[in-house]
Amino acid sequence: MVLLGVGLLAVMSMGSDAAFGAGILLAIASFLAVFAVLLLFPRVRRQGTVTFRVVVPMTMDDAEAAVRRAFEGSGRTVRTEVLASRGRKPPRVVIADGVHPRFVLEAVSLRESGDGLERTEVVQIGLAAEADPAARELRELVSSALSAAPNPVKGS
Questions:
Q1: CA 19 to CA 10: how far, in whole Å?
Q2: Are 37 and 75 in the same domain?
Q3: What does the CA dihedral 91, 93, 94, 98 come to, rounded to 10 degrees?
Q4: Each residue's pLDDT tens digit, 114-136
Q5: Domains in the chain: how many in total?
Q6: Residue 60 belongs to what domain range?
Q7: 68 and 113: one domain?
Q8: How far apart are CA 139 and CA 130, in angstroms?
Q9: What order do you get walking across the sheet with 52-56 strand by strand?
Q10: Which of 14, 33, 52, 87 gives the lowest tally of CB atoms within 10 Å of its CB?
Q11: Is the same domain home to 96 and 70?
Q12: CA of 110: how far to CAs of 6, 34, 72, 150, 154, in Å?
């Protein structure tokens, strides 16, 4: 947008002599805008509204087991879907039947963790409204299950 504004000001102040330079600035600005939309829109569309995000110091299998235990303890039927991914550890979606919000489990890279311990990011997605009572209940169940699970950081 800044490049577009600079190009427009150049044309207005210098006349048609600056039209070529303004065209280049417009092309760059258009490319950057389209690139940003193509890069960010699929992620926003996939996640929907996010109200709960936590990184836990446990493997993805342990985090999935804790989330499943929390849902099954409340009497819900649970299923897990593995998303297509180019990574070694594809993200998993844990879905409880009867409620729209779901939880995505993604492995955090060992480079990001810094200490070499395996971590998993747990994100609640797919909310219809921020103050959804079913979503709040699921959040509380999952956070209590994740905090009650054995923590490998405490043992080291």
A1: 8
A2: no
A3: 180
A4: 666 788 888 888 766 666 777 78
A5: 2
A6: 48-155
A7: yes
A8: 12
A9: 52-56, 119-125, 102-108, 92-96, 78-82
A10: 87
A11: yes
A12: 43, 32, 30, 20, 18
Whether residues 89 and 13 fall in one domain: no
In the block, tokens 């409880």 appear at: 96
Q: If you search the block for the tokens 């699929």, which residue do you land on? A: 42
Q: Taking residues 17-24, what's their average pLDDT?
A: 74
Separation of alpha carbons 124 and 83, rounded Å: 15
Hey, what amino acid is at 106? E
Q: In this model, does residue 110 exceed pLDDT 80?
A: no
Do 63 and 96 fall into the same domain? yes
Q: Domain with 92 in it: what CATH number?
A: 3.30.310
* Tokens linked to 107: 């492995």
- Tokens 């427009």 sit at which residue? 8
Q: Is the pLDDT score of 52 beyond 60? A: yes
Is pLDDT at 50 greater than 80 in this prediction?
no
Please tell me the distance from the alpha carbon of residue 7 to that of residue 128, in angstroms, as a whole number: 42
- Percent of the chain predicted with pLDDT > 70: 77
**Residue 14 amino acid letter:** M
SS3 content of the chain, % helix, strand, coil (to 5): 55, 20, 30
Cβ neighbours of 117 (radius 10 Å): 14
